[in-house]
Amino acid sequence: MKTHQIIRQAVIGMAAVLTTSAAFAQAAPETKVLPRAPQSRALMQTKPSPAATASGKIGSADVTVNYSSPAVKGRTIFGGLEPYDKVWRAGANEATTVEFSKPVLVEGKALPAGKYSFFVIPTAAKQWTVIFNKEPNQWGAYKYDQKLDALRVMVTPREASTLTERLVYEVTPKGLVLRWENMEVPVTVSSKAS
Question: Looking only at Cα atoms, what is the longest distance across the chain?
């Protein structure tokens, strides 16, 4: 008899718990489950222009390009999103940087070993300006200072055979190549003669 009462009380108690839980679940606001050990907000969200690196050797020099890689997303890039005749950070977010482990020649002009911010001035004409600036830690080109330029050279962009959706850099034995949308921008780099 006592066992029946205990079972009956247990069943009534469980029914009450289930009824209360169901009522609470219906009334409770929807919540999002956070990860167990939350990371910073920046790590939890996907960047629209993810960080990327291109590296390689040009002669005896190690070369590293750090940049953020924006997407075309159906936009006109050069002469549109990136206006002609204006300094462009050659990527997204922080200014793109190029680092050379040894002195090099860029388009035949001497550039000491070091880390530089890398800017481009696109034009509607056949030649674009490529800039190596002595201040590598910049956000975009907002505080770009021409007085800090280590080197400016002229390059000839070319139309690409296929669309490049995400901006990409390549280090080749002959130099650097920037590709985005329907353009390729080659920059000739060689080891500086000792």
Answer: 103
* Residue range 141-170: mean pLDDT, rounded: 92
Q: What span, in angstroms and rounded, lies between the C-alpha atoms of 173 and 12? A: 80
Q: CA 184 to CA 157: how far, in whole Å? A: 6
Q: In a 3-state reduction of DSSP, which class is residue 164?
A: strand
Judged against a pLDDT cut of 70, whether residue 155 lies above it is answered with yes
Q: Which of 73, 104, 59 is nearest to 181 (CA)?
A: 73
Q: Are 131 and 149 in contact (CB under 8 A)?
A: yes
Based on the number of CB atoms within 10 Å of its own CB, is 39 exposed (0-12), middle (13-18) or buried (19 or more)? exposed
Helix, strand, coil shares, percent, the chain, to 5:
15, 45, 40
- Stretch (H or E) spanning 15: helix 2-27
Q: What pLDDT shows up at residue 94?
A: 85
- What pLDDT does 77 receive? 92
**pLDDT score recorded for residue 28:** 36
**To 5 degrees, how large is the angle CA 138–CA 124–CA 70?**
40
Helix (H) or strand (E) holding 159: strand 158-172
pLDDT tens, residue by residue, 87-111: 998 998 889 999 999 999 999 999 9
- At residue 181, φ and ψ (nearest 5 deg) are 55, -120
